């Protein structure tokens, strides 16, 4: 037991608890409050019943959720935060529709500060009291205190030596509560562009032209995965993503000449359309000492053990030309480019002889790789991937009315381009590319 908790008989009223708003309860790190009160019937749930159950257990935190769930806890779980929209706690209590009992993954939270402990289990109390007759004097040491609750009990006992003399003993109990500190952490989104069912990985930061161009390469190499995975009608916005990547490449060429340039400067003028950063708030007793952390910087090895920045996404497979259907280099059917086949950016895989890679996934570790003698097969796979995108995005968008072109004509153009692509890349040469490690 923790001896610094007040005696249960001193806590007889749920008015000890005060509401502190609507809090999130959807963290991957665990629940906001750990102890669910399964002894309470969900169909009869009210805030009063939940608070009484938590009070009986001596828990300083209590909360209702989803209309009929009750949770108690000693601390607030990691990853829990005050909800940005109070109205998300919108479910009436099952036992009293005039009350609100949280919502889906939202907790109507209450705290009883007088129940919060200052010491770990087994530690001596951090207060001492000295009493000499009347009036009494109280001395407190330890944390700087917030509100102090004092309970005085007096007993009178007659002595046997003198019937007219009484002895009065005054007992003073002092409970102190440590100040509560709050820490807020802003976590950048790992989805820089959200298009349909697809999210892009954020491009790396940069502060010079070389690193800026590397970020532009990584941006463009993710374009194929957008068309393959976004789904309709979202995939039609993949063209906007590619335009953003082209704008990034242009920024690197024109703004990073002999001067400092960074990602923030580009984002300010050309913001992406992704998910916003998330904010995490946690509460804890304020510390009395300051901890200093020393960060050690190590020098990376000459070659990465995992991967390196992707190579320049120019590709070494050939986009076919057909005057009848009007496609050619820089003008593919439906605007869907031939996926890039170039040097493998995974050091271990390249070292094992797979020097080429077809970039069809935003995570290059999931992309197929090829040894030098299978280079034509890589281009054939690229032709097939382009055909699948052409059919699933361009032809289907015509069929569903997102485009004004005939579905039959669009499908015929996709098929013709695929056959021509296989023909022109059947005897394609690698011309000595990728024989040295690009990093």
From TrEMBL:
Bias category Low complexity: which stretches? 123-169
InterPro entries, per this entry? WSC_carb-bd
Segments for region (Disordered): 120-169
Q: Tell me where in this chain the WSC domain is found.
A: 16-113
Q: Which residues form a coiled coil?
A: none
Name of the protein in its database record: WSC domain-containing protein
**UniProt lineage:** Eukaryota, Fungi, Dikarya, Ascomycota, Pezizomycotina
């Amino acid at each position: 037991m923790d001896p610094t908790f007040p005696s249960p008989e001193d806590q007889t009223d749920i008015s000890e608890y005060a509401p502190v708003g609507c809090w999130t309860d959807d963290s991957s790190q665990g629940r906001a409050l750990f102890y669910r009160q399964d002894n309470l019937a969900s169909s009869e749930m009210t805030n009063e019943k939940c608070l009484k159950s938590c009070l009986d257990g001596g828990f300083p935190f209590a909360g209702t959720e989803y209309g009929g769930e009750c949770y108690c806890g000693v601390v607030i779980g990691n990853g829990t935060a005050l909800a940005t929209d109070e109205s998300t706690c919108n479910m009436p209590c099952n036992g009293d529709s005039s009350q609100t009992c949280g919502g889906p993954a939202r907790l109507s939270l209450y705290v009883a500060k007088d129940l919060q402990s200052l010491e770990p289990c087994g530690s001596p109390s951090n207060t001492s009291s000295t009493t000499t007759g009347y009036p009494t004097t109280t001395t407190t040491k330890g944390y700087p205190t917030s509100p102090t609750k004092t309970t005085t009990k007096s007993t009178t006992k007659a002595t046997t030596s003198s019937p007219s003399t009484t002895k009065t003993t005054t007992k003073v109990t002092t409970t102190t509560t440590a100040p509560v500190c709050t820490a807020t952490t802003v976590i950048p989104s790992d989805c820089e562009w959200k298009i349909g069912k697809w999210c892009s990985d954020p491009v790396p930061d940069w502060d010079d032209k070389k690193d800026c161009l590397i970020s532009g390469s990584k941006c463009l190499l993710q374009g194929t995965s957008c068309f393959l995975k976004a789904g309709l009608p979202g995939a039609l916005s993949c063209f906007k993503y590619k335009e953003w990547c082209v704008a990034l490449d242009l920024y690197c060429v024109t703004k990073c000449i002999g001067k400092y340039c960074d990602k923030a400067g580009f984002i300010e003028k050309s913001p992406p359309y992704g998910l916003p950063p998330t904010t995490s708030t946690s509460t804890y007793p304020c510390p009395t000492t300051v901890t200093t952390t020393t960060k050690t910087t190590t020098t990376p090895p000459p070659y990465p053990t995992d991967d390196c920045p992707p190579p320049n996404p120019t590709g070494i497979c050939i986009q076919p030309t057909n005057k009848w259907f009007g496609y050619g280099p820089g003008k593919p059917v439906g605007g869907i480019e031939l996926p890039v086949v170039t040097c493998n950016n995974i050091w271990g895989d390249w070292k094992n002889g797979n020097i080429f890679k077809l970039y069809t996934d935003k995570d290059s570790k999931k992309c197929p790789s090829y040894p030098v003698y299978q280079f034509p097969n890589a281009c054939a796979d690229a032709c097939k991937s382009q055909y699948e995108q052409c059919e699933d995005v361009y032809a289907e968008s015509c069929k569903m009315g997102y485009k004004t072109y005939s579905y039959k004509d669009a499908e015929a153009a996709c098929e013709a381009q695929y056959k021509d692509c296989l023909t022109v890349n059947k005897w394609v040469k690698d011309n000595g590319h990728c024989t040295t490690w690009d990093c």
